[in-house]
């Protein structure tokens, strides 16, 4: 592969490049514009963005960040994680636990400490792992620590043992499946089947209020922008070059003297933390977190978003997530609902067969074929060999 | 004179016979005599005699007494059973009685004491019922009730019993009474402990754990050691039962995974649509049964046998179509086959949902799949047994196909070195299609078996796909024996963990164990060696 990113001695590409600049402009523009259109225009106005739409778009942005976290490890390190949904859900549960503690006496049973489901299960006191979640900074820390720690332990074992490729994919799937089963249990203390819901306040603001929704949307957009810059920074650094080298020829990297497993581990943990942040922003906007977020099918769907948008392009992953989810919302709400799975399934097949580089990857290929070599074509569209 | 003497002697003899008849005849006649005295105590005693008499008429007498249909003539000392139609039967002979003055007859009356005796007698009588199954049930009932009143009947029954199973049950029941009878000598009670311990089941355990507090120390010690040994043997049987369940689960896993071992293991294709092939196989079974119900219900017992080849052909054909239209463009890109086949699985699920509806479909079990039998303390259902047998046959057939047939040889050649195989004149494209078709067809046959133990719904395949992949990865990709060992060990481990951790926690523990195991052996139990692994 002779990409600008990987050619020795080439001028390192700018942190963002044209593509990145466009992406950031769109995301940050949306962060300002959509809340403004929601809050500052009257309800009847043609420009008004209704609150439900703000939350829906906010949800897409969380998915976009989640997809980007997958792209970081799949597109640049070659780790196909079928368990990314687990990190997303853990971040979501951490936020959900904070929101549950904020309900206070306004729950159905009015218990000042115990969430409703614990009163219902006849628990007498708060389990130890719920301590501290009434304090936002601790909960926010847990949003990063819970998925990060799981990724650290899991990755430390898996990468040191050189579990790669299909084997790694299968055991990440087993991991999220085990968590799915665990969180379904009432005894776990996470609300069992129903999960955590009926949220009231976040940092003292009503989660249902227009203003809170708008701010949450803006925060999701900012998180996505931050995630993009972070990932761009990582993949264009020396560290990122090693990651790409690991993706393309792990054994050679190891023979060159790099500890491939450590590089993979760092990327894996960063990716898990990003997914956790996405989950944490997702929960207050959707209003519920339940164990179905751990289901292996969800994690596979994330992979498709990335594949549709373009693996190894970061912005493409975000685009894919938004496009596929927009299509899902559009089709599952209308008369076409019974055909949605046909379309989603067809999309999986069509993208892998006809668009192996995804929308953005294909577009970049097309542009580089038609224009002079761009100095800042973003890193390394991977070769189709997985 | 001589004649007169002879006549006298004859008359005397007749008289003796007539007069002494009740006294001379056996316990049955004695019992009847007791019913004619109008005394509850005598009636009670009579019932006791009746129960041990062994006379086939005794059952009718006890029943008649219970219903107030037992009549007697206090003067003639005769007893009659009044039948439902009003006719009378002579209790002594069992023949219809004629010329009886009904006005002189009185019913034998019963008070509570007599009623208890009636119950005990009917229990004792069923101990001597001609039907061994009834005798066995009666013996087990006495074992549970430990009614000391039944002891004489038990001992009579024990002395005549010829069926070894019933005899053992009777001996246990007698021992149960002796053990709890403080009047019995210590040695007898200790012997009773041994007899009960011989039964070795939960009931025996409960009995021995509840030895009366006033029992001699020797009896208590014997009971305690018997309890320990029963608990030990029951624990072993329990483990054996769990292993049996585990083998049964393992054979289900094997059926679900073995097709995957072909497509994933041999071809390197991550076939996420594999579970849907299983699901399609189950739906083929459903359709075959529907057709049989409509056209020839008599064939129902053969429906599964008919469904197996049809399911194989249908799903195999679908597999070939998938391979030709999608998979063949993705060789060498295993992670992308994962995505494409996941898409195919969604399409297949939705297609079935559209065609058959989202609800479960009813697939019946043929008569030879239902029922159970026992080996020792193991309960074995025919359904599970046949699935294990079927899984074994499928495994052997597949192994044979790969080892012994031309196409199997070509498959192995293509797996090991595609280019070399092509140079030798093997049509690798065709072999790919056949291999994928074979794997899919086997999944379809698995679906026929799984339709018997799982809900036939569009989601059937989803519940097996993760387990199947774990089995293949655990066993080692590209090795059928690995799949066999993987399936059986995961199945058995799951069922052995369940009693300690519960079904869900056990499953979670198993997933964690497999994840950790993969760290230890990243290529599974039986790893392929050589170049193939780096390709």
TrEMBL record, chain A:
Entry superkingdom: Bacteria
Keywords assigned: Cell membrane, Membrane, Transmembrane, Transmembrane helix
Subcellular location per the Swiss-Prot or TrEMBL entry: Cell membrane
Annotated Pfam families: BPD_transp_2
Listed InterPro entries: ABC_transp_permease (IPR001851), ABC_transptr_urea_perm_UrtC (IPR017778), LivM-like (IPR043428)
Transmembrane segments: 20-40, 47-67, 73-95, 135-159, 166-184, 214-235, 262-282, 302-324, 336-355
Topological category with respect to the lipid bilayer: Multi-pass membrane protein
Cited CDD domains: TM_PBP1_LivM_like
Entry protein name: Urea ABC transporter permease subunit UrtC
Gene name linked to the record: urtC
Automatic annotation (TrEMBL), chain B:
InterPro entries the UniProt entry points to: ABC_transp_permease, ABC_UrtB_bac, ARM-type_fold, BCAA_transport_permease
CDD domains: TM_PBP1_LivH_like (cd06582)
Name this protein carries in UniProt: Urea ABC transporter permease subunit UrtB
Keyword field contains Transport: yes
Domain of life: Bacteria
Family: Belongs to the binding-protein-dependent transport system permease family. LivHM subfamily.
TM region(s), chain numbering: 243-270, 302-322, 334-352, 385-409, 430-449, 469-493, 500-518
Keyword DNA-binding attributed: no
Membrane-topology descriptor: Multi-pass membrane protein
Predominant cellular place of this UniProt entry's protein: membrane
Keywords on record: Amino-acid transport, Cell membrane, Membrane, Signal, Transmembrane, Transmembrane helix, Transport
Subcellular location: Cell membrane
Gene name of this polypeptide: urtB
Signal peptide: 1-25
């Amino acid at each position: 592969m002779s990409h600008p990113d990987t050619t020795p001695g080439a001028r390192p590409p700018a942190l963002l490049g044209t593509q990145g600049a466009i992406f950031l402009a769109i995301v940050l523009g949306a962060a300002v514009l959509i809340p403004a259109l929601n809050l500052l225009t009257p309800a009847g106005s043609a420009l008004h963005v209704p609150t439900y739409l703000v939350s829906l778009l906010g949800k897409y942005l969380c998915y976009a960040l989640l997809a980007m976290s997958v792209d970081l490890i799949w597109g640049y390190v070659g780790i196909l994680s079928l368990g990314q949904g687990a990190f997303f859900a853990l971040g979501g549960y951490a936020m959900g636990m904070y929101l549950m503690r904020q309900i206070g006496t306004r729950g159905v049973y009015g218990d000042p400490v115990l969430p409703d489901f614990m009163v219902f299960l006849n628990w007498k006191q708060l389990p130890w792992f719920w301590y501290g979640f009434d304090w936002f900074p601790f909960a926010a820390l847990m949003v990063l620590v819970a998925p990060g720690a799981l990724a650290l332990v899991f990755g430390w074992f898996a990468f040191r043992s050189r579990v790669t490729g299909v084997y790694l994919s299968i055991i990440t799937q087993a991991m999220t499946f085990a968590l799915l089963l665990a969180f379904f249990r009432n005894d776990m203390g996470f609300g069992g089947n129903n999960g955590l819901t009926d949220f009231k306040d976040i940092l003292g603001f009503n989660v249902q209020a227009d203003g809170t929704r708008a701010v949450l949307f803006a925060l999701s957009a900012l998180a996505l922008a931050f995630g993009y810059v972070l990932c761009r920074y990582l993949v264009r650094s020396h560290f990122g070059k090693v990651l790409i080298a690991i993706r393309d020829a792990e054994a050679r990297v190891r023979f060159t003297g790099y500890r491939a497993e450590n590089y993979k581990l760092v990327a894996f943990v960063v990716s898990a933390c990003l997914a956790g942040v996405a989950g944490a922003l997702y929960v207050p906007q959707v209003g519920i977190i339940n164990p179905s977020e751990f289901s292996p099918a969800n994690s596979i769907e994330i992979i498709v978003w990335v594949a549709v948008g373009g693996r190894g392009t970061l912005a493409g992953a975000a685009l894919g997530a938004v496009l596929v989810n927009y299509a899902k919302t559009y089709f599952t709400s209308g008369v076409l609902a019974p055909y949605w799975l046909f379309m989603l399934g067809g999309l999986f097949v069509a993208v892998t067969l006809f668009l192996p580089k995804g929308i953005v990857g294909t577009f970049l290929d097309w542009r580089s074929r038609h224009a002079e070599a761009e100095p800042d074509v973003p890193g390394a569209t991977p070769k189709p060999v997985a | 004179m001589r004649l007169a003497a002879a006549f006298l002697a004859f008359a005397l003899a007749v008289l003796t016979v007539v007069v002494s008849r009740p006294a001379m005849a056996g316990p049955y006649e004695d019992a009847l005599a007791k019913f004619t005295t109008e005394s509850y105590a005598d009636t009670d005693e009579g019932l006791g005699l009746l129960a041990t008499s062994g006379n086939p008429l005794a059952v009718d007498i006890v029943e008649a007494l219970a219903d107030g249909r037992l009549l007697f003539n206090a003067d003639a000392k005769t007893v009659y059973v009044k039948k439902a139609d009003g006719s009378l039967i002579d209790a002594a002979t069992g023949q219809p009685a004629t010329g009886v003055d009904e006005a002189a007859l009185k019913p034998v009356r019963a008070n509570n004491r007599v009623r208890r005796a009636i119950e005990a007698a009917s229990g004792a009588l069923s101990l001597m019922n001609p039907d061994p199954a009834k005798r066995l049930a009666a013996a087990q009932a006495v074992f549970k009730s430990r009614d000391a009143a039944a002891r004489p009947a038990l001992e009579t029954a024990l002395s005549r019993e010829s069926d070894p199973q019933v005899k053992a049950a009777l001996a246990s029941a007698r021992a149960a009474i002796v053990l709890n009878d403080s009047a019995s000598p210590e040695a007898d009670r200790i012997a009773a402990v041994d007899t009960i311990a011989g039964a070795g089941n939960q009931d025996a355990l409960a009995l021995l754990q509840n030895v009366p507090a006033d029992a001699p120390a020797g009896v208590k010690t014997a009971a305690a050691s018997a309890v320990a040994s029963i608990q030990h043997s029951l624990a072993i049987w329990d483990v054996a039962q769990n292993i049996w369940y585990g083998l049964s689960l393992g054979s289900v896993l094997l059926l679900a995974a073995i097709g995957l071992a072909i497509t994933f293991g041999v071809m390197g294709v991550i076939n996420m649509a594999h579970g849907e092939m299983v699901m399609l196989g189950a739906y083929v079974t459903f359709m075959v049964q529907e057709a049989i119900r409509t056209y020839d219900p008599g064939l129902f017992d053969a429906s599964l046998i008919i469904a197996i080849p049809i399911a194989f052909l249908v799903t195999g054909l679908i597999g070939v179509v998938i391979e030709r239209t999608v998979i063949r463009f993705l060789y060498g890109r295993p992670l992308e086959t994962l995505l494409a086949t996941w898409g195919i699985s969604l399409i297949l699920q939705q297609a079935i949902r559209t065609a058959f509806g989202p609800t479960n479909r009813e697939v019946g079990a043929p008569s030879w799949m239902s029922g159970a039998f026992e080996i020792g303390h193991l309960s074995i259902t025919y359904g599970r047994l046949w699935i294990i047998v079927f899984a074994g046959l499928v495994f052997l057939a597949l192994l044979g196909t790969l080892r012994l047939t031309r196409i199997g040889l070509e498959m192995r050649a293509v797996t090991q070195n595609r280019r070399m195989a092509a140079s030798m004149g093997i049509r690798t494209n065709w072999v790919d299609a056949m291999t994928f078709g074979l794997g899919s067809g086997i999944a379809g046959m698995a679906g026929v078996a799984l339709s018997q133990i799982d809900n036939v719904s569009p989601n059937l395949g989803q519940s097996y796909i993760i387990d199947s992949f774990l089995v293949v990865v655990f066993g080692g990709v590209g090795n059928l024996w690995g799949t066999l060992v993987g399936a059986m060990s995961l199945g058995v481990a799951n069922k052995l963990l369940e009693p300690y951790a519960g079904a869900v926690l056990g499953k979670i523990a198993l997933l964690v164990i497999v994840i950790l195991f993969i760290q230890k052996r990243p290529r599974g139990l039986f790893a392929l060696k050589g170049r193939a692994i780096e390709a």
